[in-house]
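note to self — DONT lose this again. spent like an hour looking for the file last time. sequence + predicted structure for the chain T wanted, 161 res
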Amino acid sequence: MVVYSFYIFDRHAECIYKKKWTPRPSSTGYKGQQPSGLPDGAPQPKALSAEDDAKLVFGTIFSLRNMVRKLGGPDDNFVSYRTGHYKLHYYETPTSLKFVMVTDTKTNNLRIVLHQIYVSLYVEYVVKNPLSPIEHPGGIGVNCEMFELGVEQFVNASLMN
């Protein structure tokens, strides 16, 4: 399994944590196309900044979550979605923190894994840390070395095997 990126969004739609491991694949590379999937001679699109990428991810999960609730009712939950190139996994806590992980398409549902990251890493190293702010105004993110190290070790040990 390949993990591409991991995001945490707070209840104010701010990305408070983001981590990228490997870039997402571009295209399968058909004849007559550039690596981005565009026809030969077409201009290459600009690469997104990390901030723009996080905004797009949040917009996607916000829209899909609302669509699922409208179509399926208040008891239905958005868990994940898959494209031809990646799979996005989603977990929302009771306090409206949103944990999002982007992986390859062959990965099974990671809702339990995201819950474990929340309970064993985020709560332990961020929530219980008296130096960590309760709110993250203006995009001030999670700045806890133990949390970052824990996420790195957790993903490498349990997911990248």
